[in-house]
Design a protein that fits this description.
Largest sheet: 6 strands, mixed
Structural class: alpha/beta
Strand content: 35-45%
CATH superfamily: D-tyrosyl-tRNA(Tyr) deacylase
CATH architecture: 3-Layer(bba) Sandwich
CATH topology: D-tyrosyl-trna(Tyr) Deacylase, Chain: A
């Protein structure tokens, strides 16, 4: 599982030019599920995201986690994060099959909500326009292979 976290002032997902979901300050999280990913890794990733201290304190230092600033999450599925880019044309055979990935995607949203975080989502498998207003910018990449 690969997760890209962007600290944002706001974010939104549009589908067919209509707002599907939006957040104010918090994280836009792009998540890709790769071959071999299973439910147990989702819990570990949710824990890591919840405890990550990349929100600014009163002095502008990255000292606070998302819940401490009452931030929101916009969770967006992105299978292209699992791309094999060893050739000029990326291959996506390392991405988890859609049915399994969708199950893990909804499980991640649920696990984050269980941590008392406000989670909004994109629409799995849909073509989406994701708009973000970066804060910092701060971008963190988490790979479950490193857990």
């Amino acid at each position: 599982m690969i997760v890209v976290i962007q600290r944002v002032k706001s974010g939104r997902v549009l589908i067919e030019n209509k707002v599907y979901s939006k957040i104010n300050h918090g994280y836009v999280i792009l998540v890709g599920f790769c071959q071999g990913d299973e439910e147990n890794i989702v819990s570990k990733m949710a824990e890591k995201i919840t405890n990550l201290r990349i929100m600014a304190d009163k002095d502008g230092k990255m000292n606070l986690n998302l819940s401490q600033v009452k931030g929101e999450i916009l969770l967006v599925s992105q299978f292209t994060l699992c791309a094999d880019t060893s050739q000029r044309r990326p291959s996506f055979i390392k991405a988890l099959e859609p049915q399994k990935a969708e199950k893990l995607y909804h499980l991640l949203a649920k696990k984050l909500e269980e941590k008392n975080l406000l989670v909004k989502t994109g629409k799995f498998g849909s073509y989406m326009t994701v708009e973000i207003k970066n804060d910092g910018p701060v971008t963190i990449i988490l790979d479950s292979k490193n857990f």
